[in-house]
Amino acid sequence: MAVTIAAIQPGVTLGSSSTTIATGAGSTTTITTGIVANSSAAAITLAVSVARAAGGTFPVIVGRSVAAGSSALPPELASFVLKSGDTLTATGDGLSIILNGMVVS
Q1: Is 3-104 a domain of CATH 1.10.3720.10?
Q2: 3-class SS at 49?
Q3: Which domain of life does the protein's organism represent (predicted)?
């Protein structure tokens, strides 16, 4: 078994439709830090969901407002575990997101 520190999502700008921001790889992928930035002049709403490979889609963050010209470190994403094939999706038209973590293979 090997643990690799990784940029799970090196950076993506979200749109108004759901975007995949992470997919479980190896036996598990653990997000240790999520950074969300809003460089616009207005607040933007963030929503994040997980679709489990074993079935079911579940909300992780529901309607979190990220203030204009600010960043957020959503605690819901710290230590968030994805099994192989699970996907994390997000919306937030104009928000940028970066995810760091570990992949166990």
Answers
A1: no
A2: strand
A3: Bacteria
